Amino acid sequence: MTTSITNKHVRNRLIVLVIGLLFLGFCLLTILPWAPTGFRYDLDQSWASAFHVAFAKQIQFGQNFIYTYGPYGFLRTDLYFAETYGYAFVFRLLIAIAVWAGLFKIMRYCLARRQGSALFLIPILGFFPNPAVTMDSFQFPLLVLPLVLYFYVSKSISPVLVLTIMTASLASLTKHTYLLLCIVFISLITVDELGRLKRFPQVAPIYLVCLWLFWTLAAQDVANFPAYIFNGLEIVSGFSEVMGFEGNLKEIILYLFGTGIFLLLVVTVEWKNRRWWGILPTLGLAAFLLINFKGAFTRHDSHALQALFSNVPVMLIFTAVLWPDISKSSWRIGNKIKLPITLFWGTSVSVILIMGAIMLNHYLNYGYAAYSLNILKHLANQVPQVIRVLNGKGNFLAIAETSKAQVRSENILAPVSGTVDLYANEIANIFAYDLTYQPRPVIQSFSAYTSKLARLNAEHLKQPDAAENILFDLQPIDGHLASFEDGLSWPEILTRYDITNIEGRYLILQRNSQPRQYQFEPITEQVTLGFNEWFDVPKTQEPIWGKIELHPNLLGKLATAALRLPVLYLEVETADGIQTKYRTIGDVMNEGFLLSPILTNRWDFLDLASSDWQSRLASKEVVKFRIIVDGLNSSLYPPEYQFSLSKLQFPRQDFAQVSGWQDWSQQIRPLAVEGSPQRTPIDGQQFVWLSHAPMKTSIALQGTEQRLSFKFGILDEGVASALKENEGDGVEFKIIALTDGSENVLFSRKLQPRSNSQDRGVQEAEIDLSQIRAENLILETLAGKDNQWDWSYWSELKAE
Known about the structure:
The protein contains 26 helices and 26 strands. By secondary structure, it is of the alpha+beta class. The strands form 6 sheets. A 5-stranded mixed sheet has the order 4-3-5-7-6. Strands 8, 9, 11, 14 and 16 form a 5-stranded antiparallel sheet that branches. Helix 1 (2-31) packs antiparallel against helix 3 (82-113). It is elongated, with a radius of gyration of 30 Å.
């Protein structure tokens, strides 16, 4: 009998060992960066690649580099940088071992209770990093491991608990929201150690020592750590108001309903078992669900997937450790009715799964079956990739160089020497050219969305360590006015830097040794105006600088804390009669921004810096503006707001010797008639006036020109999409002369690139004007039955 029991014990231990080894292999297979990729230069890829460069260059976070991520933010991405790949592999290895150890210990704890609750841990494997689950979503549940291990498995300081605390401290220096969660979790554990165990805190010192260790390993100055915390809190706190984006309300309702029921049943079980001490882990779960909610639904686009990918593993972990109590507990209704908690648990899980199904189909265009199949395909593809890496055949350098070459081919730059920063957001272009990166504190313009952050960037330009060169463009996101995004720095840029080259993808600005001076001359005193009321802007001979104070009331602040603040709009009418709405950024508008003229691209910025800026930007001068608030949003703000206007006065630069200026200044620019043409790149260097059909624009002539030469066409992306979708019926291009009140068609041609290969690419034409004495020509693009894929353009308009 004893031998039988012994054999069974050995067999069980062997089974557990095999499961543990298989699980360890799974962690290593999915978490380590076996297949890093090259980078692109869009907004997201730019900040992702900047983390690698910042870590490699030992740039100081919190002081010289401010973002929602910390010095280990590069662990979030699978981009290949030779300088950081080794570090990424080692730290991901630490994460993989900690995940394995933490979950395996929880599994053994559940197996020891013999309630079958370990089965709830199996589905967690489907939420490890895969093509759908990012490291961001994966790391959120990892922070819960020390909390669960401490409160439910063992309060002793075991090697596994220390390991998970280490990875929690590493996560705290990866992303600021992780830091907030860790502070909550460590504080709750400390309260329990002091109050319930009556012992000196042991977990908090381990966390702090590991935090210091990882901060030091990243070559960060300990004196900068307070700045890392406070500036990080600044950028996180401003996110809700500025970056909020409305999405599917059904997803929010399902999340709140499903997680609310789950939290309530955890509260019930904890109160039954531990009374007041049970509130501590429950508060930890509540903090997780709240921060996860904000992260998923503040900017309610594909970020919402976090509500599924981050939330489900945590619910499964809590279910596993609490299942024996959940399965035995019930809620009483009156004296006769008892409802088992398992019924509510099933309801909670069902609601979250329904929410997940909606999200998968909405954002990824497939359901759970396809999601599971993709995971299997991913694992199958990982195995040969792991073998290639272990055999030294990863060929990562070639991948990196290919991506750099691709970025360079699409973004041609003139030679630049010295340190470099880039405005607004595509900073990865700096890395593609291996330029010396010298960032402003808030590294991308769209993120300088509070007054403090905007001031930090503006003040940085006054310092001797500011970049020697700036690659400049305007790239506002989310319908913002361009001057809302680092616009506070524009006066410094216009006077401390000279534009030296305009021929490539960006304006190249070089820091001058003798800064010019700018000043503000008041136009109006503080003016009080009601929402939705127009204000007529005084006519001036200088650009107009505005300060508009927009502050939510108490109810608005509560809305921001709960999720997000509803959007307000600044509506302006320009001299060409066009009215445009821009999403407001209250804190930035209060600090100051360029109100008039409206700048939308780098060419407008170039014109503003020129001596004849008034004639070049006459159509973009603002004649009136108002702040729009409607519906229930009006209850979140006071009924009135204040503003003031000033002239922005500064000496202009002489562009006579600026490379590319002569050609640019000689080109004719179409003006808006019906629709507004946009200056758009079609490759790394050539630019066109995008006039998406139907659109009507005009060009002014002197009346003495002999001919007009021009180019036109449909963007290659539009042609490719039309061919792929087998849709699109072409665009007709017309040029009409207005003479003596009558219209005379000078040019007409219809391009049908889907059916005629000769109509693809850039087309060229010339018109004889010798017999025409017109002062204006109308340029018109006409759609067929629909304008899908009709991305039409004009370019190189020259009249001689």
